[in-house]
Amino acid sequence: MCDYYTIIFKTCVLILVAIYILYVVKCVFNTHGVHMPKHIVSGLKYLTAVELIREGYSQKEVAEILEMDRSTVSHYLNGRNLSWNSIEIAEKITEFCPKDFLLLTYALMHEKARIIVKTCSNSEFEGIIKESCIGCGLCVDICLMKAIVLNDLKAQIDSDWCCGCLICGESCPTNSIEILEVKK
Amino acid sequence: MISNTKEVKARDFEISRSAEEKRELLYKDDICIGCGICEKTCPVDAIELGSIGAIVRTDADVPKIVCDDDKCVLCGMCSVVCPVDALEFKIDDEDIKNMEEYPSLISSAEINDETCVYCKACETACPREAITIARNLPERSKLVTGEIEIDKETCIDCGICEEMCPADAITMEHKLPTSDDPTVSSDIIVDKDKCVYCLICKKSCPVDAIKAACRSCSYGEYDLNPEDAETTGASFIDQETCVNCGWCQEICPVDAATVVKPFEGELSVDQEKCQACGACVDICPCNVLSFPASSASGMRPEKVMSDENYCIYCGACENVCPVKAIEVKRTDIKHTPTKSKSWDKKMESLKT
Question: What is the pTM of this model?
Answer without folding.
Answer: 0.80
